[in-house]
Each structure stands twice: as C-alpha cells, then as structure tokens.
Amino acid sequence: MFPEFVLFGKTIGLYQITALLGIFATGILACKHARKKGYDDNDMIVVLLIAGIGVILGGHLLYGLTNLELLRTLFADPGNITGIQDFFTRLVSIFGGSVFYGGLLGGIVAASLCIKRKKLDFGEYADMIAPGVPLFHVFGRIGCFLGGCCYGIECSFGLTYQNSLVPSANGVPRFPVQLLEAAFNLALFILLEKWYRDGKWKHKLFLAYLVIYPVGRFLLEFLRGDVVRGFVGPFSTSQWISIFLLITSGVLLWKKRGKLSAQELEVAAEKGQGKI
User: Fold this and answer.
1) Is residue 148 part of a domain?
2) Chain segment 24-62, per-residue pLDDT in tens
3) Distance CA 141, CA 30 (A)
4) DSSP class of residue 78?
5) Among candidates 206, 49, 50, 27, which has minimal Cα distance to 127?
6) What's the chain's Rg over C-alpha atoms?
7) Is residue 225 in some structural domain?
8) Is the four-CA dihedral 238, 239, 245, 246 of positive or negative sign?
C-alpha cells in the first residue's frame, strides 16, 4: 500500500499519522462529553494523557511478551552481545512493536489510577471515554492497512502488498482484515455513542464495550495471517485475552445489573418511582 512518505528529508510513517488523527478525534470527543456534563475538560485531558502513557507502555510490553523466546535467547547467551548499543538494538526489536490489547489494558490501569488520584467520578469518566476507544481503533486499523502490518490470510480476491514494512506480507493476495476490523470498530463507536447520548448502560458503558469488542476480535483473529502476534495452543494471544475480557466483563456487567447510581436514584425518587 502506502506505508510511509518522505517530507523535508524525513521518513514519516502513515501509521503514525493515522494514530495521531485517532488520538485527536478521541480527545475532542471525550472533552465534548465532559463539557456537556459540566465537568472540567482539563481534568479529562489529564486523564487521557495519563491513559496514553499506559497505552504506550502496555502495548510495547505485551508485544515483548509475545516475543518471549527472543527475550530468553537474548539473556541466555549474553556473549553474543557486542556492546551496549547492540543490546538496546535487540531490545528495541523485541519490544518495538505494539499490541492493541496491551495498550487497552495499560490505558485502563493508568486512567483508573489517575481518576482515583484526582477523586473524579469513575463511572462518569468511563462512560465519557468509552465511545472514543473504538473511534481511535478505527484510525489505528486504517494505519495498519496502509502500513501492511496485522495483515490477513492469503485470499484469492484479496489485496497484494508489494512494499509493506513487514516483508512476510508482500507478494501474495491477502484478505483486508484491517479494514474489516476498522468497519467493526466504526459500527461499535456509533452504537456506544448512541447509547451514551440516550443514557443507556449508565456507568456500565465501558463494560459493554469490553463485552462486545472481544467477541468481534476473537472472530476476526481467524482472518489474520501474521504469526508474530503469538499463539498459545489453538488460539492467538489476542484470542485468549478476548476470552478473558469477555468472561470478566460479562460477570461484572451481570453483577451490576439493576443497580442504580446515586444520581439515578435521586432522579427516580423525584419521579415517584424510587424505593430507597
């Protein structure tokens, strides 16, 4: 496709451009939600920035864990390391990529700690942020498609990469699974945004996302052709994480069923429907 271009003598990757667009779109949406709710959008910006740090660290860490064998090899035979620069070059090759689920989990942990530290309303902030996650992912997967990473299985009616940054993607027609996942995330964004505006799944909207997305991701993984993402038994790393998230989030969502927030109880009581 079109993985990179040169501007003023510097090579710029299309994935970085699409990721930045996704970050801006998500930030603008979340801040808009915060202002409409009467919250300080500066607090939202801080939460998103801290979450971004968690996304970066978590994404790279999980990528490194999928290359655990390379990491073992690196430390098992230190005699092959020619110097400190060689050591860090190898570490970059092991941890240099990023895995969405690692970024998602890292972002959740970082944002949760920030919200708790600033004593913000966790349920409200989770709801305000939830639609922005699949929105960011739309841009991310388009970037993957342009760059040639996270490519699909060989397919007679697929698209053929000639200059992908991932050599194994080139030369054969491949199913454009990145675009299919982008479309799935777009539909999920529209659904979550509608639910948010309608006041549905209040304080449970992020859990709803964590139930729906893993189902789609689990199925989409069967259309992926890259093996670098790692496998444990019959399933990829992301499929096992999908199973874990689906079960965990589903249980939490089930436990929260029928529970009203203090604000909802107050509104219900005003309407003569509350039983406190």
Assistant:
1) yes
2) 999 999 999 999 999 999 999 999 999 999 999 999 898
3) 20
4) G
5) 206
6) 21
7) no
8) positive
> DSSP secondary-structure letter at 65?
H
Beta pairing, strands 231-232 & 235-236: antiparallel
Region 217-223: mean pLDDT is: 97
Is residue 226 situated within a structural domain?
no
pLDDT 10s digits, 120-153: 999 999 999 999 999 999 999 999 999 888 999 9
Under 8 Å between Cβ of 202 and 261: yes
| Overall average pLDDT of the 183-201 stretch | 97
Supply the pLDDT for residue 14.
79
Instruction: Give a yes or no: residue 120 inside a domain.
Output: yes
Q: Which of 204, 206, 208, 217 is nearest to 243 (CA)?
A: 217
DSSP codes joined into one string, 126-157: HHHHTTHHHHHHHHHHHHHHHHT-S-B-EEEE
Q: Number of structural domains, the chain?
A: 1
Residues with Cβ < 8 Å from 275, sequence gap 6 or more?
A: none
In order of 25, 258, 270, the CA distances from 199 in angstroms are 22, 15, 17
> Which structural domain, as residue segments, surrounds residue 112?
4-200
Model pLDDT for residues 92-124, shown as the tens digit of each residue: 777 777 889 999 999 999 999 999 999 999 999
For residues 148 and 204, what is the distance between their CA atoms, to the nearest angstrom? 35
- Give the long-range contacts of residues 31-35, CB within 8 A, separation 24 or more: 33/127, 33/128, 33/131, 33/196, 34/128
